[in-house]
Design goal:
The complex is a heterodimer of chains A (182) and B (282). Chain A is mainly alpha-helical and 182 residues long. Chain A has six helices and no strands. Chain B is α+β, with helices and mostly antiparallel strands and 282 residues long. Chain B is 37% helix and 26% strand. Chain B has a domain of 82 residues: Beta Barrel (Thrombin, subunit H). The interface between A and B is large, with 59 and 70 residues.
Chain lengths: 182, 282
């Protein structure tokens, strides 16, 4: 990703809009008793499009802003989401993305990773209450939601950051190159 | 050139990781700090606008969820309605008598809020996205008289208490959060216990440390006990409704000294809440 001031401004706008939308909308709706968590998916998409550094930095600031607006202890969400963004970026740098399914599948897998990460941070800091088995259902459902929301997030963010993307494969369908003299 | 880039990338990553750990260490267990107050002040108006603008969309999505639920609840509700009708007749008489008595002693007309408290109404503007935290942010803060540890209720019962405040917003830790513990009692028997959550399931609370000699029955109501000792007292005033006993097997009571409680307040779907400011706390 080519980072110009314009693109950095767009990244900041995406991060702020994502966090506000999560807190004001997604966290307050429930489908099958589970609220979707789009923030790990957003960080995954940014990592996929921008690489490890962009993913990690965006993950850190998404977590920071989230905790600031929730007036919660800082650092925990940043740590988990920067790891999520880094892993997504690492995937992009190590493997070729051939299928349109890659982004949503990665959103699903890394949302599960992030939810487990949030749990690990909280368990490390201490939980003095029994843990319901529904936590597992909740995490799995969030991952499934992330799969479906990942499509839309990937398409939207890629469109917003298109001028900065180094590789933007243009798929031409139904037309072969003309070979003169053939 | 490439090695330089790699080194720079590693340095940034190390800085972010170390920064996260420092932030976690410094801010864990604190109410709120200057950075959060600043960021919250900047973004509060934006959150408020987004919250209001997105309410119709939220209601639509939640309507679908509730419709699925309603199908399953229909038969059960018919049975409950018959029982409730019988109880309502007696309750109306009691309420009328209660209202007259309350007027006599000059207490709050609704009876839901204990005397000495000044309720401040707030709207939920944000909610923690992970299952591990049961926190909401409301749009009233220290500027409205809200203080840390103030109890928070809604029309159905106890919701939680204020964990941190900024000028225009406050974080409310719900009774379903893992850090929550509420001293409670069963009415009318008066059996005391501590209400703790079952992390990940906001519809299931656990009333723990019950007296194993006494029996608790399904359907009994649970309210805050609001104990008071020398120089120390509960954050919650007495008799705030919390929920009703959903499961109380003999084995569970004897072996674990606990019963399961379903909260009256729908902790998944909070909109307007009241913070009980003031009170008798120093």
């Amino acid at each position: 990703m080519i980072l110009t001031p314009n693109i950095v401004a767009r990244l900041i706008a995406i991060v702020v809009a994502g966090v506000i939308l999560q807190l004001s909308f997604f966290s307050q709706v429930a489908l099958f008793h589970v609220s979707p968590d789009v923030l790990p998916a957003l960080v995954v998409v940014l990592g996929l499009l921008g690489g490890t550094l962009t993913g990690a930095v965006c993950g850190f600031w998404v977590g920071f802003l989230l905790n600031c607006l929730l007036i919660a202890p800082l650092g925990g969400a940043s740590l988990v989401l920067l790891a999520t963004g880094y892993l997504a970026g690492l995937f992009r740098e190590r493997f070729e993305i051939h299928s349109a399914l890659v982004a949503p599948l990665l959103c699903m897998a890394l949302t599960l990773f992030a939810e487990l990460g949030f749990g690990a941070v909280e368990l490390t800091l201490g939980i003095d209450a029994p843990i319901s088995g529904l936590v597992i259902r909740d995490m799995l459902m969030k991952s499934i939601f992330a799969f479906f929301l990942g499509w839309a997030i990937y398409a939207g963010v890629r469109r917003a950051l298109r001028p900065a993307l180094v590789e933007e494969p243009m798929v031409r369908r139904g037309r072969r190159p003309t070979v003169l003299g053939a | 050139m490439y090695r330089k880039q790699v080194r720079r990338r590693r340095a940034v990553l190390a800085l972010l990781i170390v920064g996260s750990f420092i932030l976690l260490t410094v801010t864990y267990g604190q109410g709120s700090n200057g950075v959060q107050r600043g960021v919250s002040t900047i973004f509060s108006p934006l959150q408020d606008v987004a919250d209001r603008a997105l309410k119709p969309a939220r209601d639509l999505v939640n309507w679908f969820d509730e419709t699925f639920d309603a199908k399953g609840d229909n038969a059960q509700l018919h049975d409950e309605l018959q029982v409730a009708r019988k109880q309502a007749v007696g309750a109306k008489t009691a309420l009328a008598e209660n209202a007259q008595l309350r007027k006599l002693v000059g207490l709050d007309k609704s009876g839901a809020i204990p005397s000495g408290y000044d309720p401040v109404t707030g709207r939920v503007i944000a909610r923690s996205p992970t299952v591990w935290f049961a926190d909401v942010t409301i749009d009233v803060g220290s500027g409205d008289g809200v203080e840390v540890d103030d109890p928070v209720v809604n029309g159905d019962g106890l919701v939680g208490k204020v964990a941190a405040v900024t000028g225009g917003s406050a974080r409310v830790t719900l009774i379903a959060d893992h850090s929550s513990a509420v001293s409670a009692k069963i009415v009318p028997s008066g059996i005391q216990g501590v209400m703790k959550p079952s992390v990940g399931d906001p519809e299931d609370l656990i009333l723990d440390f019950l007296d194993s000699e006494k029996r608790v029955g399904k359907g009994q109501s649970v309210v805050t006990s609001g104990w008071r000792g020398i120089g120390i007292e509960s954050d919650y005033p007495p008799n705030l409704p919390i929920g009703e006993v959903a499961e109380a097997s003999l084995k569970q009571q004897e072996a674990q000294q606990q019963v399961n409680v379903r909260p009256y307040a729908d902790l998944r779907d909070l909109d307007l809440v009241q913070v009980l400011t003031g009170g008798s706390r120093e």
